[in-house]
Write a structure and sequence with these properties.
The complex is a heterodimer of chains A (167) and B (89).
Chain A: H1 3-24, H2 28-48, H3 52-77, H4 89-112, H5 127-135, H6 143-164
Chain B: H1 2-11, H2 15-40, H3 46-76
Classes of the chains: A mainly alpha (167), B mainly alpha (89).
Family (chain A): Belongs to the complex I subunit 6 family.
Subcellular location (chain A): Cell membrane
Keywords (chain A): Cell membrane, Membrane, NAD, Quinone, Transmembrane, Transmembrane helix
């Protein structure tokens, strides 16, 4: 029972509990807070995998940007004391049954599968490798998706401003 | 996490709560890609970059979805999905 395993189990339980709480609570601002905890837990898993760059990006964009966006929009669009009303029992049971069936199928497939043997390379993934792979033009390098995602972000910025502006 | 997100998407009626469930699904998929890359393909970086770009794309999509929801709220004053059943009022 190494320390890595203990840390992973703690993080995984934290993420699982917070995600279930995020979808079953009736107050929506609490759901946004539980989502923030889930995003912190996910960044913790990335840091444990030695993917520090991905963990830092996750913290910046998700926990720092998107959560603030959600809190703003929740406070703009909900009246005071607005709680989600309870669903009819039939719908909740149907949702839970279908979700649990899907989870059972997924777990069955995962546990029966024989993965190729895992060779874990210890050590940090350094930023120089990431930089060369992101900006290079060779076969396995990613400059084209980088440019495309910059155009996509520009389009989303312009579209968002256009949709939500004051008339 | 993914199945919690799917359950939330099925059973919630507030549009923002449905978006939160979609965020849970996307996060779970990113973890999956990063772990597969780290453990099974240590020489290559495909899973890492897929997760990176997926984080970026989901941020953009969340921003546009929230802009649309704010616009809906300005016109209809309600964001429960059972009240949004007409295209033009």
């Amino acid at each position: 029972m190494t320390l890595q395993l203990i840390v992973f189990i703690v993080l995984a339980l934290f993420i699982a509990v917070c995600s279930v709480l995020a979808v079953t609570t009736s107050r929506i601002l609490r759901a946004a807070t539980y989502l923030l905890f889930v995003l912190f837990g996910t960044a913790g898993i990335y840091f444990q995998l030695n993917y520090s760059f991905l963990g830092a990006v996750q913290l910046l964009i998700y926990a720092g940007g998107i959560t603030v966006l959600y809190v703003f929009s929740i406070l703009l669009t909900s009246s005071q004391g607005d709680k989600a009303e309870k669903l009819k029992n039939g719908k909740m049971v149907a949702g839970a049954v279908s979700t649990l069936a899907g989870l059972a199928i997924c777990l069955f497939v995962m546990l029966k599968n024989e993965f190729i043997p895992s060779h874990f390379v210890h050590g940090e993934l350094d930023v120089r490798t990431i930089g060369h792979a992101l900006m290079g033009m060779e076969k396995y390098q990613y400059i084209l998706p980088f440019e495309v995602i910059s155009v996509l972000l520009l389009a989303c910025i312009v579209g968002g401003i256009l949709i939500a502006r004051k008339r | 996490m993914m199945f919690a997100g799917i359950y939330g998407f099925f059973t919630r009626r507030n549009l923002l709560a449905m978006l939160i469930s979609v965020e849970l699904i996307l996060n779970s998929v990113d973890i999956n890609f990063a772990v597969f890359n780290r453990y099974l393909f240590p020489g290559e970086l495909e899973g890492f970059f897929f997760a990176l770009f997926a984080i970026g794309v989901s941020a953009a999509e969340t921003a546009v979805a929230i802009a649309i929801i704010i616009n809906i709220y300005r016109n209809v004053r309600n964001i429960q999905v059972k009240n949004l059943n007409e295209m033009k009022n």
